[in-house]
Automatic annotation (TrEMBL):
Catalysed reaction, written as an equation: ATP + H2O = ADP + phosphate + H(+)
Cofactor(s) recorded in Swiss-Prot or TrEMBL: [4Fe-4S] cluster
Domain of life per record: Bacteria
Organism taxonomic ancestry: Bacteria, Bacillati, Actinomycetota, Actinomycetes, Propionibacteriales
Domain Helicase ATP-binding residues, every copy: 1-260, 6-240
Residue ranges that the Swiss-Prot or TrEMBL entry lists as coiled coil: none
Family membership noted in the UniProt record: Belongs to the helicase family. DinG subfamily.
EC main group: isomerase
Bias (Basic and acidic residues) ranges: 129-143
Species the sequence originates in: Nocardioides caricicola
Span list, region Disordered: 120-143
GO molecular function, one term: hydrolase activity
Name this polypeptide is given: DNA 5'-3' helicase
Amino acid sequence: MAEAVAEAMEGGRHLLVQAGTGTGKSLAYLVPSLLHRDRVVVATATLALQHQLVERDLPRLVEAVKDSGVDTSYAVLKGRSNYACLHRIREGVPDDQGTLEVELPTGSLGKKVLELREWAEEQSEDGGTGERDNAPRHTDKEWRQVSVNHRECLGAAKCPFGQECFAERAKEKAQKSHLIVTNHSLLAIDAIEGVPMIPEYDVVVIDEAHELTTRVTQAATDELWAAEVERAARRSQRHVDGDQANDLADAADALRAAINDARPGRFDRIPEDLADALVLVRDAARACVSAYPKADQSGKDDDGDAGLQQAKGAVQEVFATAERMAADLDSDVLWMSEGTERMPPRLCVAPLQVWGPMRDKLLSDKTVVFTSATLMLGGDFNSIATSVGLKPSEREAEHTPDTMPWRGIDVGSPFDYGRQAILYVARHLPQPGRDGMAPAMLDEIVDLVDAANGRTLGLFSSRRAAEAAAEVVRERLPHLTTLAQGDAQLPELAAQFVGDPHTCLFGTLSLWQGLDVPGDTCQLVLIDRIPFPRPDDPLLSARQKAADQAGGNGFMQVAATHAALLLAQGAGRLIRTTTDRGVVAVLDPRLATARYGGFLKSSLPPMWTTTDPAVARQALARLAAT
């Protein structure tokens, strides 16, 4: 793999590398990255991998080659809101009128914000990074009290604390480094949105590349709701002399009324009242931004007024989102989310596809190495290659002005899946329905968990299904400890799961990719159903419809590919070392009976397969007895 990565970097040819867990793939791209003549960016999807690179792999590699003359400088770079803002901590947070308020909020929020402020000041004194990941445990709401986004930032030249700024220091370090570690979202904003965030580079290595299109989509998704427009109007009132702030507040009322009249879900055509309200918000926000003063009476540049800058930034955000939504472009998908007790209904807009912008703005300009343990779906690279902007016909092609040649290699795995793992498909069970979990499926779960004597990671399609299964297992197998996602924070649940082998942990999507539990802790991975997207998923349903209209097979290109990726990630939780053993049990008979079952199974590791429940239970019982 290292040789293939080096060859791709030198030859300027894109590369897809499937490298299973345990192959040491991070070293296989970090070594050629340090040896490459120009700066290289490594982009990851998860904080866990970023920490592994920065805390473990890179320090070891630097130590190993310290006397070789290789430039081993590296830096971590994240979006501005990931760093504490010293101006907000010392000067205060804008209230609803845009006035800076240094006083702490009341209650537990105030206590946590004080703790975060003290931590940030310690970081500043000790030369720390001020990164959110290193902060005391907190919520998003608490972190917003000590951070700013890029629109709210005064800029280093105008901020009295610009010299100490954590985000600016991270940028300066990146400018001087040969290797930059960042995340998929920041890469997308820099390369695809065109907002300069990363110093000039030659090559990007994208690890966890199976996540890339989702992260790029998230980075290009905007939301708008009435309360946000209303708050931007209130914050503008002390900075705008005319009626523009009041007009924006009236537009917020019109938007609220239109949202209340609309039905949640995707809009093929925007309802007339909603379209009119979006135009009203767009025009009122534009007028409000224009009404902000450029200088105060003393002639001082008001860009140095943090309250004004942040209030103006909020209106600019509203304008940009309303303008995009009102444009109703074919290249975007617009929908309204369901409201909850804590969250009002909101409008969302996302790109219909991201492969075009990725091809035009990233692949055409940089050499890209994509790597993951899950890049081959249905037995080849075509699905993933297409999703990131590469054409299957360009594989191993010659360089021409119109082609982007790429190479795909599978470097295998150190694991012997045929001996270490069994794939059990419960062919005898009824197909999953919409009415919750069938009694036969719950019986099957209890029998398998009982045979394994705990040691079970249950991956479910919904929180309701996970909780229902957990309740039945607790009732029928009271001698085991059964945990459900939501009982505590995920790190706490994972620690309990690892600490006691007679434990089951049941949860949803975040467990599929966020948990690494090697050893005897996990000998049974339960998957309740093939993880197809929900039929009412606004974005994926729009992508499936667009694929059908283009003459393709939308179900296979979108729904089956989505399911194959998640299924492979879920099954991948079982075997994490060469000594692990166990069973992946898929309780959805369609994996064995449906026409698309072959495509899904060929996306999984090559495990020994059975549909006989007795074989699965006996194997689990033997493992539990050793």
